[in-house]
Design brief:
- There is one protein chain.
- The chain is an alpha+beta fold.
- The chain has one domain.
- Helices cover about 35% and strands about 15% of the residues.
- It contains eight helices and seven strands.
Length: about 230
């Protein structure tokens, strides 16, 4: 039997370390199960065809396919259209901070018509819940844990003449969980957003919210580029 030389350590097929975060290294299904472990299950499930829409506000938009037809010979060439996804910083009154997220231009117009991010997320119609997706569903859950939204729901129940109920918390599998588990998930979610620089908190954000401005869809003035000779 011939002698097989050993491989050099640099040619081995095992990696001794990785710089990829453990959560990001998981598949989409595992990542969603990890991030939504302590919140109620989303009634419409995750998107299986355009998976990045599970981590933003896409409004059911996905990649569309069609043909590009030439004017002269009417030759068809296959092409595709991607959604107009942008990274915007929207203000949430209930959280008292700006939230930076991926959102399509269509959803951005709907948010403007609804009166803000909180009003869009707290929509009660089935179509609105379906448009939220997994990312919007978790952000909606986070907003509903604030005292401002809870007081708003209490006033609505009082106007309808309904009796007050004790708060019941449900997990991702529909099981009842404790309030401590919910608060731990809230703190973990806030830490993840702050670590990924998805939420900007500071005096600049508070001053911008207090001034009101021209609305959250107003364009920021272009910065002047100074050339030093």
């Amino acid at each position: 039997m011939p002698f097989l030389p050993t491989l050099h350590p640099s040619l081995s097929f095992t990696r001794s370390f990785t710089c990829t975060a453990r959560t990001l290294a998981k598949s989409t299904k595992q990542r969603l199960a990890h991030e939504h472990s302590a919140i109620p299950p989303y009634p419409y499930g995750s998107s299986q065809f355009y998976k990045q829409s599970n981590f933003g506000l896409y409004g059911l938009q996905k990649i569309r396919f069609g043909n590009k037809v030439s004017e002269k010979n009417e030759i068809k060439t296959r092409r595709h259209w991607r959604p107009n996804v942008q990274r915007k910083k929207l203000y949430s009154p209930s959280l008292g901070r700006y939230i930076r997220l991926r959102i399509t231009a269509k959803v951005l117009r709907t948010v403007d018509k609804s009166g803000g991010l909180d009003e869009y997320l707290l929509g009660e119609k089935a179509q609105r819940i379906k448009e939220l997706g997994m990312g919007g569903w978790k952000l909606r859950w986070r907003i509903m844990q604030t005292d401002m939204v809870k007081e708003r729901f209490r006033q609505q129940r009082a106007q309808l003449g309904l009796e007050e109920r004790d708060e019941v918390y449900y997990g991702s599998k529909g099981n009842i969980i404790t309030k401590e588990e919910v608060m731990e998930e809230v703190r973990r979610y806030d830490r993840e957003l702050a670590k990924e620089a998805e939420i900007d908190i500071g005096e600049e954000a508070e001053a911008e919210a207090a001034s009101g401005g021209d609305g959250f869809m107003a364009e920021e003035p272009a910065k002047e580029n100074k050339v030093v000779v």
